[in-house]
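Our preliminary data section would be incomplete without showing what the modeling component actually yields. Below, a chain of 685 amino acids is followed by its predicted structure, encoded as tokens that our downstream tools consume directly.
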Amino acid sequence: MAYLGPSRIFLPGVSVFRLLSSVGMDDMGLALGRSSLERLNFDNLALKKLPLDASEELGARQVKGACFSRVTPQPLTKPRFVAVSHEALALLGLDGEEVTNDPLGPVYLSGSKVMPGSEPAAHCYCGHQFGQFAGQLGDGAACYLGEVKVPPSDDPELLRENLSGRWEIQVKGAGLTPFSRQADGRKVLRSSIREFLCSEAMFFLGVPTTRAGSVVTSDSRVVRDVYYSGNPRNERCSVVLRIAPTFLRFGSFEIFKQADEFTGRQGPSYGRDEIRGQMMDYVIEVFYPEIQQNYPDRVERNVAFFREVMVRTARLVAQWQCVGFCHGVLNTDNMSILGLTLDYGPYGFMDRFDPDFVCNASDNSARYSYQAQPAICRWNLVKLAEALAPELPPERAEAVMDEYMDLFNGFYLENMRKKLGLLKMEDPEDEILITELLQTMHNTGADFTNSFRSLSQISCPTEGESEGEEDLAKKATDLLLEQCASFEELKAANKPTMDPRELAMLLSMAQSNPALFQMISDRVTIARQLDRLSKLKDLMETSQEELKTKQAEEWTSWITRYRKRLARELEGQSDVQAVQEERVRVMDSTNPRVVLRNYIAQNAIEAAEGGDFSEVQRVLKLLEKPFSSQPGLELPARVGGGAAAAQAERDEGEEQQQEASTSASRNPVPYDSKPPAWAREICVT
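Predicted structure:
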């Protein structure tokens, strides 16, 4: 019997039609069941507290005196889920399985239909891009849908890092906004899968990040030149659902900037200082309530706020460095005001350790290299401080920034000690030991993730060891030699990226015409190329056997020092076995087995572009437990294995990407092993 409400029953002689017609629309919704997405409790505080653009004019334009502009997401044709993150959707009080099976799920979560209570808008911000002020940027493809209040029944732990009590949700790739400039506001499957997977991967690694609830793809198409090679192709429009307490960023406060002395550009809201104060009040009251409560003086409150942003940023970049993560585009518009990893574009996790690692192929000057990230984040904080003046007095901001490097080093050293299992004491020489480890990894071309993971298998020296010190050191060395680069890999890694004739010309120009040289290149770039040439020359004069011997000597030397340091961990400990077990437990829960290497994402992308979404879902499951062994998930399914699904997705005669056509013939390697040779060919810009 159908349930028609608490007091309704079937009456003899009364038709069901008449009964149904007497039920109100609200009751009808309850009777037939509403989509869980239609029951989300929106409270769009940002649009109430911050200035909203009065104009709803279509097309790219300057937005003055406002933080948000209302927009209308553009519907997709036949939207469908690629994958959903059950853990991320749980933040909104949603059941992932229910959303997946909801016919309206991909419609609502792609912006193709607006949920009740949602108020789509695009955020206006500016930014320093590659060191130069770019003026107005804004949400060119992202669309704020609103803020969902956390259901009272949710686990309080979910709000540990979000004191606002609400989650902002965005769709990225939902079409044009006033900030789309020359673009179309759309995203494709490649970039959407990368953002979705990495958002979730970082969370499960314990790194502060925005979240991703779903990826939706469609039959809508856009033209993209994948490799900027003059060979464009049609790609499916896709949308990521992004979740965070807020997506406000350093660049949000740069809309008030006066004309830049180098670029001449200024923020669209220059002169509207009252809005800056309004924004600071909103951010501090909502996201830093303890600071609001503890500092009645406005200046002291603002200084405390800036210091907390600085601390969170220092902690964040220290965590990046410790998992080998490179952001790729650390512009001020990609820096979260909450200290979260924000905007996943040409990111990359290091394979072979290289402090000069650059994940973004378009970063020709290596401004955002791995080793540059801590200093760049400091530079961005200085730009934030400038944007907050006069609400934040410059001399007070400078005093706060004086603390940054010491704080970063402290966070970095704390994380690194855990990665090495140095838990019982803090030796002043630990920093040297860590530096020597990284130098050894660099010299031998060792895999960053796997080398750290292997360290827990190196035993602590104990009294009365059954094996000799040399035998144990050799076992440890053999273990780490497996992660070292081969002769051919090192040759490829050290090959200069600049044509020899260009390099010779620039070297000559640096001597004969320094002014012209500074306009087209820089000494750091040239020095990097010369260093590669020098290393390549040394390699060419070394045999493979000599290389292996040298690698073994370097690792043996470091392992001997490491085991001596481990022995000091046991001094004064009554239960040596317990100390050993704790060390292994901490190391194995700090050093991941699996990170989202580019080739892992590429496997999932190529499968999805062929119509098989299962690899995206498998990789997500793997990344949700990055510290654990997961038999059955660690070896990739062969791309193209889901033939039936793939055929259903393909248009007849659709030309597949060349890489996808060859992927089925690749020999798959476990995702927790060193990457395959073809991974070096992946180019992300």
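The CA atoms of residues 509 and 566 lie 52 Å apart. Confidence is low (pLDDT under 50) at residues 1-32, 639-664. Preliminary results of this kind motivate Aim 1 of the renewal.
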